[in-house]
Amino acid sequence: MKEIEKFRKYIQFEKRYSTHTVTSYINDLLQFNTFLLSNFSIAEESMVRHTHVRSWMVYLMQDSYNAKSINRKISTLKSYFKYLKKLDIVRLNPMSKVIAPKIPKRLPKVIREDALDTLFASKPEENEFKSVRNHLVIDLLYSTGMRRSELIGIKLKDLDLIKGQIKVLGKGNKERIIPIGEKLVLQIREYLEIRQMEYSSDYLLVSDKGKRLYPKLVYNIVKNELSKFSTSPHKSPHVLRHSFATHMANKGAELNSIKEILGHANLSATEIYMHNSIDRLKSVYKGAHPKSN
After folding, report:
1. Residues 171, 212, 223, 275: which is the catalytic one?
2. What are the tens digits of pLDDT across the range 243-261?
3. N or C, which terminus of the chain has less Cβ within 10 Å?
4. Alpha-carbon dihedral 269, 273, 278, 279, rounded to 10 degrees
5. What is the pTM of this model?
């Protein structure tokens, strides 16, 4: 397939996809290209038919890929052939007859509210940079529902502590404003006082050496901090994002408001958090209503 490099430039510079997304798309296309060459001796996009794509899907299933991974690869092919059709590089779009496998619905994993209450009730060691920073990392992730990449990217200029809000750069380079409460504002101020005595950086959160935080360090901080107060096997930055949204839904927050804070493109991505809320309501109903049994 000769047009992959053109497509890479298109999604990188015109669509402005993140580096991670561009890499994933290109890896999917190269994998599909290798499959076509090995099994059908096809090297031209115009020769690809829906039967070839379906054969690849079967191959992936036999190679133990789950439905979610296959769906992502199918989505890549749909974007690629839509791009080729738009440029008249292909006459027929083979993806028009391809149906992606259904993904079984799984409820998001969350940390119990009481465990998080205990964590936030604890105090970091006074004036000890690492302890204060780690506590702030957990609080920011849970109090705002932001993604790990968004947390790492926060710069000092993105903070408006007077208005109580933070600007983050989300997926597709879309900016959004997230409100924060007074307690978190106070915690950020205390952290900044300690940080400026030791480090100078444009970024809010820095490592022990004063460098910008990196993904693995954030993951380790979350895992270590949550391990002190929670027995849940699921301890990651994304679990805190799930916990934020689920607990908001449980408290009656409007679904559209949760969507805006999380930075979801559409409501379908947010609706999964309502399932946990409904399960909670069912549990309350069964335990309290005389006609529930």
Report:
1. 171
2. 999 999 888 888 899 999 9
3. C
4. 120
5. 0.67
